[in-house]
Amino acid sequence: MPQSPEFVDLREAAEPVLGAVLAQNARVEHHTSPLDPARLRALVDASRLALATPDGAAFVIAFDEAGAYDSPNFLWFRERLNRFLYIDRIVVASELRGRGMARALYDRAFEAAAAAGLGQVVCEVNREPPNPGSDAFHAALGFAEIGRGAPSPGKVVRYLSRPVTGEGPT
Questions:
Q1: Helix (H) or strand (E) run with residue 17 in it
Q2: Could you give all domains of the chain from N- to C-terminal order, each with its CATH number?
Q3: End-to-end Cα, the chain, rounded Å
Q4: With contact defined as beta carbons under 8 Å apart, do 46 and 67 qualify?
Q5: Backbone φ and ψ of 112, nearest 5°
Q6: Which pairing describes strands 120-128 and 155-163: parallel, antiparallel, or unpaired?
């Protein structure tokens, strides 16, 4: 069995790690959203979970329902659900894909949600522009669609949820 990857807390990460996180995010911002150093710091400070590989090549930022976050997608969940962990973004460098890194980050998210007594992990996946790889990945993890939205012009998302324990929707 492969060894579990090592992660560092972004709250304590050195500037080179944060710079690498910004670079990784920039490569996929059409699927996530743009970040600059100040916005990254604000997100990390407000998050429930903010982890990265030591080189910043893969990372997760997630919020619980009480998080101070203004994303329309996060607010969609907050208006409808209680006690959840919202995955704002999981980004994995292309050279690390297919090695279980995203799954390891989700495992850590589910562990954090369980430790905090949160009942579900939620996220959104782009429908427009399409992201079929993310659709397949989330389906394999047991996420199910609970709604759709159009948070910005040209972007349509599928809102997904999975209980912290077990498979399938809540």
A1: helix 15-27
A2: 8-163 (3.40.630.30)
A3: 31
A4: yes
A5: -65, -40
A6: antiparallel
Got the DSSP string for 32-77? S----HHHHHHHHHH-SEEEE-TTSSEEEEEEETT-----HHHHHH
pLDDT tens string 68-115: 999 999 999 999 999 999 999 999 998 988 889 999 999 999 999 999
C-alpha pair distances (Å), 124 with each of 4, 5, 14: 26, 25, 29
| pLDDT tens sequence across 105-155 | 999 999 999 999 999 999 999 898 888 888 999 999 999 999 999 888 888
The residues that bridge with 5 in the sheet, in sequence order, are none
How far lies 54's CA from each of 33, 63, 80, in Å? 22, 21, 35
Contact 71, 85 (CB under 8 A): no
The first and second tokens of residue 18, run together, are 């944060």
